[in-house]
C-alpha cells in the first residue's frame, strides 16, 4: 500500500455528448495527472450519453489507470445518462451532487431506435463487468441497460451504484480523503490512500480548438457542411464571380472534413458522397431536365445513411430535406450558370459593344466621346460622325471605336450641355 503524496488534483469538466473528442481529452487528462503526480483525476460530468465506442475507450482507460479517478455528477439537475452511467461506474470513486440522476443505459441506433438484442446483450455484459470490477450493483447495471432504469442520487448511493453524495467539489475531496482505492491494470494492481483534503485544484480544459472539434462532432453538421459546401464550390467553378460562393463552399467543406476526422465513418458512404458531388457538377455544367440532380440527390441520401459507423447516423429530419434542397439547388445553379455564360460581356472591350453615347467633339473624320469614365476616339463605320450625334458602338478596333448613328430616344444625361475640359 502507498499513499498519494501530492496535494493537488486535476479537474476536467465534461458537458454534453460523449464523442471521440471527449475520449481523447480524458485520455490526455489521465496521462497529465500521472505525469504531474496529482493525487486524483476528477471528472465533473453532466451528459445525456454518447457513442458506445468512445465510452468503451474511456472505461478501459479508467479501469487500467494508475491515478485514482473520481467521477462527480454535478451540478444539481445534472445527469449521467447512458454512456455517462458506464463512465461513472468505472471510476475508482463515483459521486453525485444532490438532485442528480444516473442510468438509462439502453443502447440506441443513430435514428433513436432501440438497438438489436445482440447489441443490448453485449452492453449488458459490458455494464455488469464494470460493476463487478468496481464492487458496484450488478443488478442496477443489468437493469439500466435492459429496462432503461434510472435512479436519483440518494437511491444510487443507497444501492451501491455510486459511493457517496456530496454537495460540492470541496466537500467531495474532504470526504474521500484517506480512502483506500486499488489502481493499475490487471496483474499490476496496487492500493493507494487518497490525500485530497484541501488539495490544490488544477483544471484541464478542452481549449478553443477542442471545443470547436466537439461542436463539430455531429453527424448532422458534417453531412450539412459537406453537402452544401460541395454545391457552393461547384457553382463557383461553373460560373466564376466575385468568389463569395467559392470561399463559403471551401470553408464548409473544411468544417465538414474536420467533423469527419473526429467521427467514425465508412469509406462506402464517402464514395457515395463523391458520386453525388460529381452528379451535381454534371447538372451545373450541362443543365438539362434535372436527371443528374435527381441522381445526385439519391446518391446523397444513401451517402447519409451509410456514411457513419456503429450507432451513429444522420437524423432523417436532416437527411431528406438536405438531399432535396441540394438537388433543387443544383438545378437552380445550373440554370443560373447557363444564363451567366450566355449573357453579353459587361467588362473589357466586348462590354462596349452596343453601348450608346453622344459624340462631344470632332476633328476631321474622327470624333471623341466619353464612355465608362474614359474618352474614346470614334469613327463612323459608314458615314462621318458629327458633334452632338448620338451613336452606338458596333466594333472595337484597338483604341478606336467604330460607331453607327442611333436614332433611339435620348436620355437626360445625353441632352445635358457639354463643357470642354
From TrEMBL:
Gene Ontology biological process terms in this record: proteolysis
GO CC, one annotated term: membrane
Record key words, sorted: Hydrolase, Membrane, Protease, Transmembrane, Transmembrane helix
Limits of the NfeD integral membrane domain: 221-332
Topology with respect to the bilayer: Multi-pass membrane protein
Domain NfeD1b N-terminal: 9-167
Molecular-function GO term, any one: peptidase activity
Principal place of residence: membrane
Alphabetized InterPro entries for the sequence: ClpP/crotonase-like_dom_sf, Membrane_assoc_protease, NA-bd_OB-fold, NfeD-like_C, NfeD1b_N, NfeD_membrane
Domain (NfeD-like C-terminal) ranges: 350-403
UniProt xrefs under Pfam families: NfeD (PF01957), NfeD1b_N (PF25145), NfeD_membrane (PF24961)
Subcellular location: Membrane
Protein name (database record): Protease/transporter
Originating species: Streptomyces qaidamensis
Organism placement in taxonomy: Bacteria, Bacillati, Actinomycetota, Actinomycetes, Kitasatosporales
Amino acid at each position: 500500500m502507498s499513499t498519494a503524496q501530492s496535494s493537488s488534483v486535476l479537474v476536467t469538466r465534461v458537458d454534453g455528448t460523449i464523442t471521440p473528442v471527449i475520449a481523447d481529452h480524458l485520455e490526455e487528462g489521465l496521462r497529465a495527472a500521472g505525469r504531474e503526480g496529482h493525487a486524483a483525476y476528477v471528472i465533473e460530468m453532466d451528459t445525456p450519453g454518447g457513442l458506445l465506442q468512445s465510452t468503451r475507450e474511456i472505461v478501459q482507460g479508467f479501469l487500467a489507470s494508475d491515478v485514482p479517478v473520481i467521477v462527480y455528477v454535478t451540478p444539481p439537475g445534472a445527469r449521467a445518462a447512458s454512456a455517462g452511467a458506464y463512465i461513472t461506474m468505472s471510476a475508482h470513486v463515483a459521486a453525485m451532487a444532490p438532485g442528480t440522476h444516473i442510468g438509462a443505459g439502453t443502447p440506441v441506433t443513430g435514428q433513436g431506435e432501440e438497438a438489436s438484442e445482440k447489441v443490448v446483450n453485449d452492453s449488458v455484459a459490458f455494464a455488469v463487468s464494470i460493476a463487478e470490477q468496481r464492487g458496484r450493483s450488478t443488478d442496477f447495471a443489468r437493469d439500466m441497460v435492459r429496462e432503461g432504469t434510472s435512479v436519483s442520487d440518494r437511491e444510487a448511493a443507497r444501492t451501491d451504484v455510486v459511493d457517496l453524495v456530496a454537495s460540492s467539489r470541496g466537500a467531495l475531496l474532504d470526504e474521500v480523503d484517506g480512502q483506500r482505492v486499488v489502481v493499475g491494470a490487471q496483474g499490476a494492481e496496487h492500493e493507494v490512500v487518497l490525500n485530497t483534503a484541501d488539495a490544490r485544484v488544477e483544471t484541464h480544459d478542452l481549449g478553443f480548438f477542442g471545443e470547436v472539434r466537439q461542436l463539430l462532432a455531429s453527424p448532422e453538421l458534417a453531412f450539412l457542411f459537406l453537402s452544401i459546401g460541395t454545391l457552393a464550390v461547384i457553382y463557383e467553378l461553373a460560373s466564376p464571380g466575385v468568389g463569395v460562393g467559392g470561399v463559403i463552399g471551401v470553408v464548409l467543406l473544411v468544417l465538414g472534413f474536420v467533423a469527419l476526422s473526429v467521427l467514425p465513418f465508412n469509406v462506402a458512404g464517402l464514395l457515395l458522397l463523391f458520386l453525388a458531388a460529381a452528379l451535381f457538377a454534371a447538372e451545373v455544367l450541362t443543365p438539362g431536365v434535372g436527371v443528374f440532380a435527381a441522381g445526385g440527390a439519391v446518391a446523397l441520401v444513401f451517402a447519409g445513411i451509410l456514411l457513419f459507423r456503429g450507432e451513429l447516423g444522420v437524423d432523417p429530419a436532416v437527411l431528406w430535406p438536405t438531399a432535396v434542397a441540394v438537388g433543387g439547388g443544383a438545378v437552380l445553379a445550373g440554370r443560373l450558370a447557363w444564363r451567366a455564360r450566355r449573357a453579353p460581356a459587361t467588362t473589357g472591350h466586348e462590354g462596349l459593344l452596343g453601348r450608346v453615347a453622344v459624340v462631344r467633339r470632332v476633328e476631321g473624320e474622327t470624333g471623341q466621346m466619353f464612355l465608362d469614365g474614359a474618352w474614346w476616339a470614334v469613327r463612323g463605320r459608314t458615314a462621318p460622325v458629327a458633334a452632338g450625334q448620338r451613336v452606338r458602338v458596333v466594333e472595337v478596333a484597338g483604341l478606336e471605336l467604330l460607331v453607327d448613328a442611333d436614332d433611339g430616344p435620348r436620355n437626360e444625361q445625353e441632352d445635358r450641355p457639354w463643357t470642354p475640359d
